[in-house]
Amino acid sequence: MPRVTKQQLPKAGDVFQFEVKSGVAMLFRCVAQEGDGRCVVLSRWFGEPRKTVPSSPSLFTVQPLKHHQWDRPMIGGWVTTPPPDAVVKLGMVKLRDVEPRRVLHPRVWVTAKKQTPTMARKVLPMASWDSLVRDARAQWRWENEHAAVLAEDEAVQRAKLEAMAAEVIKMRGLDPSKL
User: Fold this and answer.
1) Per-residue pLDDT for 6 more than 50?
2) Alpha helices in 81-174 (DSSP H)
3) What is the torsional sign of CA 5, 48, 77, 118?
4) How far apart are CA 40 and CA 30, in angstroms?
5) Where are the domains of the chain?
6) Which residues pair with 27 in a beta bridge?
7) pTM score, two decimals?
8) Is 125 helix (H, G, I), strand (E, B) or coil?
9) What is the β-pairing status of strands 88-92 and 76-79?
10) Using one digit for the tens of pLDDT, what is the confidence trace for 142-173?
11) How far is Cα 80 from Cα 10, in angstroms, rounded to an integer?
12) pLDDT, tens digit, 9 for 90 and up, residues 94-109
């Protein structure tokens, strides 16, 4: 399995694997380069960890970001650093013509004379590898462990409400045992 050294940024066409959870891998693709930035998007492929790039049409399909209240056409962003050790290069697959055209660097958006909704859907933010992996894991869990995610969200909300209630009781000088 090819390894990327700390000095190497991805190249257009590079395919990277990371484990979203033990025994389940997902794939990132580098689909564009602009200056020092590399646009990395998450493909719809997931499965058992691999040693080579899979030959699957899902490798070329981007994963939308739809968990919770998100509504973005793809999970991805522009990175300026090499991937962390947990993101392993599997190889390179030639880009299809559509891949670089479906993304836009934020600089192009900001300097455009006319910004359109079509352009806006293509703009991906500057990102870190950690944020890309976090978004990918959150989306995978939303699609594959939905009930658990909702239960965790509810528990977090309940804890916040209980903490707020305790603070109000304390501020008002009330005796919680008499409530």
Assistant:
1) no
2) 98-101, 106-111, 117-122, 129-144, 146-171
3) positive
4) 4
5) 14-145
6) 17
7) 0.78
8) coil
9) unpaired
10) 988 888 878 887 888 888 888 888 788 787 88
11) 9
12) 999 989 988 988 888 8
